[in-house]
User: What shape does this take?
Amino acid sequence: MSSGKDPLPPYFSIDPAKAARRLADPIDTARFARAAAFAARGRQDLAERGYAPDGNKRLRRFSTWEICRYLIPVAPAHFRRVLRRFPDLPQGVGEGNSKWFTLEDVLRLRDHFAAEGAAGREYRPWRPEGLPAKTIAVANFKGGVGKTSTAAHLAMSAALDGYKVLVVDLDSQGSMTSIMGGTVADEWSTAFPLLAKDYALALQDENRVREAAGQPPLPFDETLTEALTITARDVIQPTHWPNIDLLGAQLNLYWAEFQVPVWRMNLRGWPLWDALGNALRNDRIVNDYDIILLDTPPALGYLTINALAAADILLVPLGASFLEFDSTGRFFDMLYSTFASVEDGENAARRREGLPEMRFEWDAVRAIITRFDAAQQTDLANVIQAYFGDFMTTFRQDVTAMVGQAGEQVNGIYEADYREFNRDTYVRGRETFDRTWAEVKELILGTWWRDLQMEQAERAAGTEQADG
Ligand SMILES: Nc1ncnc2c1ncn2[C@@H]1O[C@H](COP(=O)(O)OP(=O)(O)OP(=O)(O)O)[C@@H](O)[C@H]1O
Ligand SMILES: [Mg+2]
Assistant: This one.
């Protein structure tokens, strides 16, 4: 109840003259440089007080309980028996029955069980030999919807499962790079030189044609010459996870958004959307890894377009709110117009040259609800689900206190030590990300299987032709 004496809310009685006196002079560009310099000093200060990651992330160890519960399908008693019987296997550290193992240990133990354990048990996840990695882009035009969290957790789940994972950070904010403990000095350690190289190769081709026709070559600058010497392997770094590597990002990667259209203006025939995918294929990165995860910025810029074009599977996280639903609908609309206009332009040119037409194709696309609060959002989520239909997973990733809250050294559920959490919080938090992985793993395995059938059918058709 108002007593009649409550003070007015703070936005009444503001005196414009006083407000003007409190203002500093108008801001010029140089002021930003000063703000940045102060921030850099503050950053140093915070780092000295122990607030910043030290750049030497270490992955925690995994307990016997955790291994038998989540990682290798064996009973603890049997697990201990096997360790006793094979003293050369990693024995873990710690007192009593619960030993703690590094992930390298876990991977070795899994190999042992895969070779010697009970037949018919899935010690190692399925992966068809000889087929390329599955590339998964996590994208949404909307910011803060859980792209990076989803991609990071998927990378870690896949790694715990025993897959070899590459994470590509295409967001110049570099959040994924921090999560993976990466160090990126400048744009030359990001995806930028791979895009530059793709353009440089296209430009070389063009110049050969021009030379043959007696035309002057298009200019070839230092950036392009240097980019030609770089391969994807040069920019990929290991992480504190033994089976996750990183192609990192840093603020300068944003430069690509300005540079790519300039290159395209210069050479209209350059298929700029294929640059990243070409690099991953030509440098045989798709043969070195099982799963490649692309984290994208909250924009449909050239980096995101490259990620989408390189992807087999597209995941679109969104929260169950009106604004995120609305914005995600627009994102699909933008995807349609962007890729349809690329197809139209390309195919017009291809028809003129008598070449076969091209079209973009994805193995699977799934919107996924993130940060879901069943008590508040079930209605909205059901409606969203009805509209997206099979474009959406039926599974919803719950909001959990375990994400975002962990310290700088630890990111997300898989890096956190379960002993530091209330058991229910841990089990529920872990389950929601385990199920996210299960949904995506099902898509990966299903599409690999489909590829394998197609490959075998093609090979059979080829043999028939050879026979006939
Ligand atoms: N399941 C979850 N439970 C609780 N918090 C979450 C969950 N998923 C994400 N978050 C939090 O939501 C915020 C945004 O998540 P995230 O950074 O993954 O989004 P993003 O889409 O990558 O953002 P950006 O568009 O800036 O790249 C972060 O603070 C993150 O910790
Ligand atoms: Mg992000």
User: Anything to note?
Assistant: The chain is about 50% helix and 10% strand. Residues 134-447 form a domain with the Rossmann fold fold (CATH 3.40.50.300).
